[in-house]
Each structure stands twice: as C-alpha cells, then as structure tokens.
Amino acid sequence: MKQYVSIIFKLKDEIQRAVLNYNLSNAGVESIEEREDDVIAYFGVEEWEEAKSELDLDGIDYEVVLVKNENWNAKWEASFEPVNINDFCYVRAPFHPESEKAGLIDIILEPKMAFGTAHHETTYMMMSEMKEIKFEGEYVFDYGCGTAILSILAEKLGASGIYAIDIEENAVENAKYNAEINGCEKITCEQKTLEETDEFAYDIILANINRGVLLNSAKPLKNYLKPGGVLLLSGILREDEDLVLDAYKAEGYTFVHSIQKGEWKCVKLSVSI
Ligand SMILES: C[S@@+](CC[C@H](N)C(=O)[O-])C[C@H]1O[C@@H](n2cnc3c(N)ncnc32)[C@H](O)[C@@H]1O
C-alpha cells in the first residue's frame, strides 16, 4: 500500500497561505486541509521528496509526519463531520445518521486516503454547481474522481452512465467502494490518465484537479465532450482563473460563469453546438 506523509505548515499570514496553496497545487499534492493557523498537505512519500526540492520553503515553518496506514480510518472517522451543500445534498460517513432535513440527496463516504469529501472548497463548489445542471439521461466523465463523490452525485441526479478515472490506485479502489455503498450501478471507475482513456462524446465533464493538469487537458478534453456539452472545472486558485480560462477559450470553449469560495474558483464552460 502506498505510504503518505502529512506536512503541517505553520502560517504567518494569509499572504503566505495564498502563496503556499498556489505552490502546493502545482507540486503534486494529494489533498490540502485548511485550518485557521496552518495548512496540512498530504503527499505520497516519493512525491514529497520531489516537491520538497521544487517548493520554496525558505522562512516557512513545517513539520513532516509519516501517515500510518493502519491509523488512517480512525483518523478520518474522528475528524469527519457531515457536510450540507446548499440544502441540496448531504455528505456523511456511514456512522452518521441521515440529515434530519427532508429532501436532501444523501451521500455516504469512506474517504480513507482519497480526496473528495465536500469539506474542501473545490468539491463543495463542484457539487453546488451540479445542482443547476441537468443530469437526467446524460453521460458523464468524472476526470480525477478521488472518492467518486461527484460521480455518486451525478448518478443520484439521474445520469445514465458515469465514467470515472483517477491516476491513483488507492483513489480508484476507494471510488469503487464508495459507489458500491451508495448503491450506484452506473459508475465505471478505472485507474487511467486522460491519454489512456477512450474518446467518447460525453454530455458533461467534471474535472476538479489542479492548474497543471487542467491546462494540459484543454485541447484533448475536447475529444471527450459533445457539442453543446458542459465542462465544470475546479482545483483553480483565484489568481489562476484567467490563465485557465484563456487556455480553454483558445480551444473554443465558451465561458458560462464562475463562482468562488475562499481562495478557490469553480468555472463552468460549454462547447458550441
Ligand atoms: C482535487 S482531487 C478531486 C477529487 C474529487 N473529484 C472531488 O471533486 O473532490 C483531484 C484528483 O485528481 C487525481 N488526479 C491528479 N492528476 C490526475 C491526472 N493527470 N489524471 C487523472 N487523475 C488525476 C488525483 O489523484 C485526485 O484524486
């Protein structure tokens, strides 16, 4: 099983937070937990060794802790609180009761080491934007699925089929497990890169990844979206929005709108019919 480290960065101010978030998102971070006075970044051990030499960590106080795989379940169980997304959807762990509010879409997750619990701003925004998109009868591509949280929501919103990929083996294992505990039958999840994925004209693409991957995907993703289709992107820091938008507009996508939560943006695009 892959070994991970958590790096606790003690922050001096919000400028340092913004710079660090920006650098981490381009350095192969697995997930980021934002707290009031610090940021915890999770990396694979090998990825951290590479990132450490690339990141400018001068003047930043940080501590590296090896994440013990056997303790991971207990760790997330202790810290996982249910999330209510705009009174539309409720994300909880199996040991939480369902929301007392009626009518919310119920999603059960055991994230283990995968990213995607709706606690992060990017996932939260992707899910709240999904509320406004018609999924019934549609075919969806979940690019960088993590826990499969977006795929599960897509199926619960009526999608006819969801194809989910992630480069990480543990994410794919976890995605399959979460799809199963939610009773989802329309999600196919595979460990693949975009280049290894068969082209198909999906109606909707969901891609909450990071700046580097999104920039590289602007051109090839067009072969996975049908004319008139919708592309929802996140994993984009506020200051990177223009850069990402320019790359997608240059490939012929049309900007629909974007929303912001904290330092992060979620962008909706379409391709013309
Ligand atoms: C920020 S997480 C998003 C997870 C989930 N979709 C969500 O919205 O919460 C990004 C995921 O993309 C995966 N990923 C990163 N680079 C990738 C690539 N080149 N191809 C496929 N997946 C990738 C990571 O392993 C991670 O699980």
Automatic annotation (TrEMBL):
Catalytic function, reaction form: L-lysyl-[protein] + 3 S-adenosyl-L-methionine = N(6),N(6),N(6)-trimethyl-L-lysyl-[protein] + 3 S-adenosyl-L-homocysteine + 3 H(+)
E.C. numbers: 2.1.1.-
Compartments where located: Cytoplasm
Residues that, per the record, bind S-adenosyl-L-methionine: T123, G144, D166, N208
GO cellular component terms attached to this protein's record: cytoplasm; ribosome
GO biological process: methylation
Gene Ontology molecular function: protein methyltransferase activity
A Pfam family matched in the record: PrmA
Record's keyword terms, sorted: Cytoplasm, Methyltransferase, Ribonucleoprotein, Ribosomal protein, S-adenosyl-L-methionine, Transferase
Entry's family note: Belongs to the methyltransferase superfamily. PrmA family.
Role of this protein: Methylates ribosomal protein L11.
PANTHER family assigned: ELECTRON TRANSFER FLAVOPROTEIN BETA SUBUNIT LYSINE METHYLTRANSFERASE
Name assigned to this protein: Ribosomal protein L11 methyltransferase
Species of the source: Portibacter lacus
